[in-house]
Amino acid sequence: MTSWDILVVACIATIGIYLLTSNPSSANSVRMVKVASTSGFEKIYKLEGHATVEVEGRLGKSVIEISNGGARFVHSCCPNHLCVKRGWVSKSGDMIACVPNGIIVRIIGKCEYDGITP
Amino acid sequence: MKRAKAILPMLVLGLLIAITLARSKNRADVKWSDTLLLMDTVVEIQLWADSDFGFQEASDSLLKKLVSLEDLLDQGRFVVSKSNQANIPDEVKKLIALSDSAYRLSRGFFDPTIGAVTRLWDFSDGATPPHPDSVRNALRLVGMDRFVSGQISDSVVLDFGGIAKGYAADCSVDLLGRLGCTRAMINIGGDLSILGSHKDGRPWHIAIRHPRKPDCFIGYLDVGQCAIATSGDYERYFFHQGKRYHHIIDPRDGMPGSRCQSVTVVANSAWLADAMATALFLMGPHEGSQFVECLDGIEAVFVYAEGESVLVTDGLRGRFTKIDNQ
Fold first, then answer.
1. Is residue B192 within 8 angstroms of chain A, CB to CB?
2. What's the ipTM?
3. How far apart are the C-alpha atoms of B100 and B94, rounded to whole Å?
4. Closest partner CB to A116 (pick from B7, B15, B207)
5. What gap in Å lies between CA B3 and CA B138, rounded to an integer?
6. Is B187 near chain A, with CB under 8 Å?
7. Chain A residues with CB inside 8 Å of B208's CB?
């Protein structure tokens, strides 16, 4: 094997590794909203357009509005309504949880951050 | 033709090398995540490990640990009375010992005996502040020094709300480390415990929520293995007669602190970050930053009581980036 051959093999291996390990799927870059409950409900919605989602939780019904690229709780039967007070969520990786009613609304997609506090 | 024949083996060899290396890379970089509702908050688990790592077993062990901790506390509180003081569970004893350390370190700004006062505060819709007489009476049962030395004869309500989530995050990361996991992030209600370095070799980027714009971040931190916790006046609160009342109660007067909107603490352990976030929130940016400068291994980002200004302690300079949300 000449040094030229080694160079060709190395180039092919590099391109191959890139193609095999990179994730060209656009799924990560498109933001969606996932609504899930501890009772087993789980559904993913597009953030474009407008939708109203009613989810039955541990305590009763919660209503989630999806609009203008974001989502929010508009009604919840929980006692303190922290989920409703939280307002809109639109950034990938961010979420609103109604802990008493067992419902999580999470924006999914490519996220700039590894974690959020709090 | 001859040249094409010569290239073919090289192509095959190159692709074989690529597939082998790519498979070994993927094998070591499997991400596993789960979200649970426990301890009155959201628990997010993220692990990266070899594909043969027992992800489900690790998650089950974590769940068991966190549920056992949750079962010990009632809304983050534990009442010590004459009837049970001889039989305090070991896990609660650990929390008491850590709380005592945080109490001493914070010069009393973090005080778990505040439980008699915090349980007077209700943050449900239409809530109002407790009557001053009730707060005054409850404050008689507050005082970690007196509790530890046995000077309080009545029942003492220990509120671990400012330390238990961090402690649980530490326990989770310890457990994962013992199981062989080398990279993980546990987020329990915003108290983060990070194990190992980021797989891309860069720092972990941790966003800090904007205290007044809930869909925005006020900045982000670049960190390595560490723990991070934030205390903010926007997590549980109500407005009464135009004033915000929130859940971070000052053990000196039984009222919510008002010197900051939020404080984010970076430390080596999450229980300490959690407790110090509460203490520094009550101290405020001026006193709190001076206090932090005297401590090793604790750094903080304060958001002032008004506006969007932040104060970053020396150890985080260059590691905190402010985000312009205008």
1. yes
2. 0.83
3. 10
4. B207
5. 90
6. yes
7. 116-117
pLDDT digits (tens, 9 = 90+) for B145-158: 988 888 777 789 99
Whether B49 and B179 have beta carbons less than 8 Å apart is answered as no
Query: Do the Cβ atoms of B219 and B321 come closer than 8 Å?
Result: yes
Asked if A34 has any chain B CB less than 8 Å from its own CB, the reply is no
Measured over the CA atoms of residue B166, residue B186, residue A57 and residue A76, the dihedral's sign is positive
| Contact residues, chain B, for A8 at CB < 8 Å | 7, 10, 14
A113–B217 CB contact, under 8 Å: yes
As a whole number of angstroms, the distance between CA A6 and CA B190 comes to: 51
Instruction: Locate B201 and state its tokens.
Output: 């070799």
Say yes or no for a CB contact (<8 Å) between A99 and B208: no
In chain B, the N- to C-terminal Cα span, in Å, equals: 64
Residue pair A107/B178 in contact by the 8 Å Cβ criterion: no
Digit-by-digit pLDDT tens for chain B (326 residues) are: 566 666 666 666 666 666 655 555 555 578 888 899 998 899 999 998 888 888 888 888 989 999 998 888 877 889 998 888 888 999 999 999 999 999 999 999 999 999 999 999 998 878 899 999 999 999 999 999 988 888 777 789 999 999 999 999 999 999 999 988 889 999 999 999 999 999 888 999 999 999 999 999 999 999 999 999 999 999 889 999 999 999 999 999 999 999 999 999 999 999 999 999 999 999 999 999 999 999 999 999 999 999 899 999 999 999 999 998 87
Whether residue B296 lies within 8 A of chain A, CB to CB, comes out as: no
Phi and psi at B3, nearest 5°, equal -65, -40
- Using CB atoms, pick whichever of B14, B194, B208 lies closest to residue A12: B14
Query: CA nearest B13 in A: which residue?
Result: A9
Residue A5 in contact with partner chain B when CB distance is under 8 A: yes
Q: What is the pTM of this model?
A: 0.86
H or E element, residue B19: helix B2-28
DSSP notation for chain A: --HHHHHHHHHHHHHHHHHHH----GGGTS-EEEEEETTS-EEEEESSS-EEEEEE-SSSEEEEEEETTEEEEEEE-SSS-HHHHT--B-STT-EEEETTTTEEEEEES--S-SEEE-
B10 closest CB neighbour out of A9, A15, A82? A9
Q: Which amino acid, residue A64? A: I
Cβ contact, residue pair B37, A97, below 8 Å:
yes
Contact between residue B193 and residue B173 where contact means Cβ atoms under 8 Å apart: yes
Task: Please identify among residues 131-170 of chain B the ones whose CB lies closer than 8 Å to any CB of chain A.
Answer: none
